[in-house]
Fold this protein.
Amino acid sequence: AGATGRNMQAEPHVAHAASVETNQSPRPLFVLHSRWRQEREQQQAQFQQHQQSLTPSLQRKQQQQEQQQQSAPFTAVTCSESAQSMETTGCKQTPEPSIAGMRCVCFIPMVILMCTVILVLELHQNHEGIGFETETTDDCRFRIKVFEEQFCTASLSKNPMFGPRTEVLVDMGAVSGTRIVDNAEHYRLVTGIFLHAGVLHWATNMLATLAIGLPLERRHGPTRVGFVYGFLGLYWGVGSA
């Protein structure tokens, strides 16, 4: 009976200790969570302060970069222009090739000059045998006189390219399959490169030559561009014939 009494007296203490342990067990987890939140908030605040401290330096670097671009317009930025990427990776500038280092540009201007002179000769040849004092005809519809020289173009129904009649083009060396094959007039494969059917044909070809040919000649030189130009011209002549 005494033992049971002691056990019964000890049981409340054990139950009280167990209840204390169960009440105190969640407290360390709550404390750790609160400390983790405080440390995270402190880290975020430090990061924001660091970013704010970097903003003036980034602005100064961006201003310096803009000044350098204005003073040296022939520079190309090779990395991102954003402030963050310039801060993390560092923006480098690579100068483009200088004007002094560019190749000679002479072939394309020579081609344009030759085509222009030949077009003027076509219009001058078109008025041969036709007097300007007579009435206009389909062979010489639009007429112009510069000093003592006379030029004219055929009617649009006969040549929609606003140029001379077909006979004049053939006489001046235009590509003609029958004459190249039957009469062995192979020179027409070369002369046909510089002949144009009219002013509209000449204008479109010259614009394309300027837009494509000049950059290629600056980069690769007149020799390579001349070779490609001649090869394509011969290929076009053979295909047309």
About this structure: The longest helix spans residues 26-71.
